[in-house]
C-alpha cells in the first residue's frame, strides 16, 4: 500500500476496499491466464470458463469505478493499471468474437479500446523507466488496430498506426532493446495490409469511401417462388491461410481476412441483445446464430489442420454444412504415378519449418513417396460423410477437381485459376484475385478492367446493377435442367448462395476478358457446372458487357465467347 498514512491509521472500511480490490485483481489475472490452457477447438468446453472470467472482470471494472478515490490514496492505483483492466476486457470481447464469430462483440472490444485512448490511460507510461510497461502499451495499439481492421474503421487505423509509429520510435530511442526490428515489422505489415485493396472508391472531396463486404440485408439474392433448393445451412467454416509472401497482419493474411468477412453479417449493436457473453438465459438466446462459426488457421501444420477439421466435423449439427477454405501454395506431384488416385495429384502446402527453404522451395524426398506436408484431396475424403463445401485458392487448385463423392452427401468444390495472365501476376502479394471476386466482386471487376479508382456515385450504381446480375444468376442456377443437385442443395443458405453466384460471375467475367485466354486462367468446379447454362450463358454475358459499358471498359471484353469453343 502507498504511504497515505501508517497502516494502522487506515479506516477499516478503506482497508477492506483495498483487500477486496487486490482479491479481484489477482482472481482476474488468474482466470485470464487460464484462458491460454483452454482447447482452441470445440465449442462447448470454454463457455462456462469465459463466463466466469467476464464476471470477475465486470466486478473489477465496476469496483475500481466506485472506489477510485480510496484506491488512489490507499493503494496507489495508477492510470495505466486501469488501462490494463480495460485492455484485458477488450481482449476478452475480441476472443469471444473469435470463438463465436458474432461480429457484435467486436463493437464491444472497440468501445473498451477506444476508452483507453480517449482517457489517456497509458499516457504516463513513458515517464516510468520500465520498458515492459511500454511494451504493454505497444501491444494494446497492435490489438486495437486488429479490431479496427475487422470493423473496417480505416480512418481510426491510420491514426493508430501514426501513434504507434511515434511510440515505437520513442521506445527504441529510450531503451536499447532487441525487439526493435519486430515492432518495425508490425508497422510495415499493417501499412501493407491497409494498401491491399487494388481499387479506391472516392467521395467528391477525394476522401476514400470505406466499403464493407460483410453480408448486408440486401446482400444475397432472395429465393423466389418456385425455386426448389435444399434446406442445409452453413454452420462451421475453416479458413486456412498458407500462402508464401502474402501480406498479413497478426496471423491473418489478406485472403483469410477477405473470406472471413464474406462469411459474416454486418455487426449489430450488442447492448440491445445481451449483457455479457456466456451469461444469457437460454430463453433469451436468438432463435438462430447470425454467423457460421469459424476457425482461423494461419500456416497450420497438417496435424493442426486435421485436428480442427475433426473437431468441426464432430460438432456439426444435423442439416448443416462444413466449409473449408484453403488459400495456400500448391504442391505438385513428383514423377509419374502408376495410378490416378486421390493422392496422385498433389494438393496444397501445410506448414513445416523444416521443409520450407527461402519461403518457396519444398524439400524433395524420394519420388515414389507422396509429399507429407500437403493436404491431398484424399485427406478430405473421410469428411465427405457430411455436407462439405470446399473453396481452394491455389496454384494447384485443380488437384481437387479429381474428387469422388463416396458417401452421396452434398459436395461442391470451387477452384481458383491455377495461373493468371502476366499483367496481373505482380498483385499476388496483395491477395488473390479469385478470393477478391468472392469477397468484393465489383472491386475485382474494376481491377481486371484496369481501373484503380472510382467515384462513389458510379460505384453505387454498379453495385445496384451487380445485385441484378446476382438475381439473374440465381435464376439460371435454379432453372437449369442439367446442373448437379449438389449446387442446389447448398443454395438455400444465404452465405453459400452468395458465394456460388459470385463464383459464376467471376468465371463468366474471366472467360469474356481478352487477356484471360488460357484454360488455366479460368476457375473450375467439382462437380462441373453446365457452361452453356451458367458461366457462358448469353444472357449473363450480355449483363457483363452492360456493366463494362457503364464503366466505359467494354473494349477489355470479347463480345461473346460462344465461338471460342
Question: Can you give a write-up of this model?
Answer:
It holds the Pfam family SCAI. This is Protein SCAI isoform X4. GO terms for molecular function: transcription corepressor activity. InterPro entries: SCAI, SCAI_metazoan/Viridiplantae. It is a single chain. The protein is an alpha/beta fold and about 575 residues long. Helices cover about 45% and strands about 10% of the residues. The chain has 17 helices and 13 strands. It has helices at about 10-35, 45-65, 70-75, 80-100, 105-120, 130-150, 155-175, 180-195, 255-260, 300-315, 420-425, 435-440, 440-450, 455-480, 485-490, 495-510, 540-550; strands at about 200, 235-240, 295-300, 320-330, 330, 345-350, 355, 360, 375, 390-395, 410-415, 455, 525. The strands form four sheets. Strands 3-2-4-10-11-13 form a six-stranded mixed β-sheet, with helices on both faces. The chain has a three-stranded antiparallel β-sheet with strand order 5-6-9, with no helix packed on it. The protein is globular and about 90 Å long. The chain starts with 11 loop residues before the first helix and ends in a 15-residue tail after the last helix. Residues about 1-5, about 270-275, about 280-290 and about 355-365 have low confidence and may be disordered.
Amino acid at each position: 500500500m502507498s504511504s497515505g498514512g501508517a497502516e494502522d491509521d487506515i479506516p477499516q472500511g478503506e482497508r477492506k476496499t483495498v483487500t477486496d480490490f487486490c482479491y479481484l485483481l489477482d482472481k482476474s489475472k488468474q482466470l485470464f491466464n487460464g484462458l491460454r490452457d483452454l482447447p482452441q477447438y470445440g465449442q462447448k468446453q470454454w463457455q462456462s470458463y469465459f463466463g466466469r472470467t467476464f464476471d470477475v472482470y465486470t466486478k473489477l471494472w465496476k469496483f475500481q469505478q466506485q472506489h477510485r478515490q480510496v484506491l488512489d490514496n490507499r493503494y496507489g492505483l495508477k492510470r495505466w493499471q486501469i488501462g490494463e483492466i480495460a485492455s484485458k476486457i477488450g481482449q476478452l470481447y475480441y476472443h469471444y468474437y473469435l470463438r463465436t464469430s458474432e461480429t457484435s462483440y467486436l463493437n464491444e472490444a472497440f468501445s473498451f479500446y477506444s476508452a483507453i485512448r480517449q482517457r489517456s490511460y497509458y499516457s504516463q507510461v513513458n515517464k516510468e523507466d520500465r520498458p515492459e510497461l511500454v511494451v504493454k502499451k505497444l501491444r494494446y495499439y497492435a490489438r486495437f488496430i486488429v479490431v479496427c481492421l475487422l470493423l473496417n474503421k480505416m480512418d481510426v487505423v491510420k491514426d493508430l498506426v501514426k501513434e504507434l509509429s511515434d511510440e515505437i520510435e520513442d521506445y527504441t530511442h529510450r531503451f536499447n532493446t532487441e525487439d526493435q526490428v519486430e515492432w518495425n515489422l508490425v508497422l510495415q505489415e499493417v501499412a501493407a495490409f491497409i494498401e491491399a485493396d487494388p481499387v479506391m472508391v472516392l467521395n467528391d472531396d477525394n476522401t476514400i469511401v470505406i466499403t464493407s463486404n460483410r453480408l448486408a440485408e440486401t446482400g444475397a439474392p432472395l429465393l423466389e417462388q418456385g425455386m426448389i433448393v435444399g434446406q442445409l445451412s452453413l454452420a462451421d467454416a475453416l479458413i486456412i491461410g498458407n500462402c508464401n509472401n502474402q501480406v498479413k497482419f497478426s496471423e491473418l493474411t489478406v485472403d483469410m481476412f477477405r473470406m472471413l468477412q464474406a462469411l459474416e453479417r454486418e455487426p449489430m449493436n450488442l447492448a440491445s441483445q445481451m449483457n455479457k457473453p456466456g451469461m444469457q438465459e437460454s430463453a433469451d438466446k436468438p432463435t438462430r446464430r447470425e454467423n457460421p462459426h469459424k476457425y482461423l488457421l494461419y500456416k497450420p501444420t497438417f496435424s493442426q489442420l486435421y485436428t480442427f477439421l475433426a473437431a468441426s466435423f464432430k460438432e456439426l449439427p444435423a442439416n448443416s454444412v462444413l466449409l473449408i477454405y484453403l488459400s495456400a501454395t500448391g504442391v505438385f506431384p513428383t514423377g509419374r504415378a502408376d495410378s490416378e488416385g486421390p493422392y496422385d495429384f498433389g494438393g496444397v502446402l501445410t506448414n513445416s519449418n523444416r521443409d520450407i527453404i527461402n519461403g518457396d522451395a519444398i524439400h524433395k524426398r524420394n519420388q515414389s513417396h507422396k509429399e507429407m506436408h500437403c493436404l491431398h484431396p484424399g485427406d478430405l475424403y473421410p469428411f465427405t460423410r457430411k455436407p462439405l463445401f470446399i473453396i481452394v485458392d491455389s496454384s494447384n487448385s485443380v488437384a481437387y477437381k479429381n474428387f469422388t463423392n463416396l458417401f452421396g452427401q452434398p459436395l461442391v468444390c470451387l477452384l481458383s485459376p491455377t495461373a493468371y495472365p502476366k499483367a496481373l501476376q505482380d498483385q499476388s502479394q496483395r491477395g488473390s484475385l479469385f478470393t477478391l471476386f468472392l469477397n468484393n466482386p465489383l472491386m475485382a471487376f474494376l481491377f481486371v478492367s484496369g481501373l484503380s479508382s472510382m467515384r462513389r456515385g458510379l460505384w453505387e450504381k454498379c453495385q445496384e446493377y451487380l445485385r441484378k446480375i446476382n438475381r439473374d444468376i440465381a435464376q439460371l442456377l435454379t432453372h437449369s435442367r442439367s446442373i448437379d443437385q449438389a449446387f442446389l442443395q447448398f443454395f438455400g443458405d444465404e452465405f453459400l448462395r452468395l458465394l456460388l453466384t459470385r463464383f459464376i460471375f467471376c468465371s463468366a467475367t474471366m472467360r469474356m476478358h481478352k487477356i484471360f485466354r488460357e484454360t488455366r486462367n479460368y476457375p473450375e468446379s467439382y462437380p462441373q457446372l453446365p457452361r452453356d447454362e451458367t458461366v457462358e450463358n448469353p444472357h449473363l454475358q450480355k449483363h457483363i458487357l452492360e456493366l463494362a459499358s457503364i464503366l466505359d471498359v467494354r473494349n477489355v471484353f470479347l463480345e461473346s465467347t460462344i465461338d471460342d469453343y
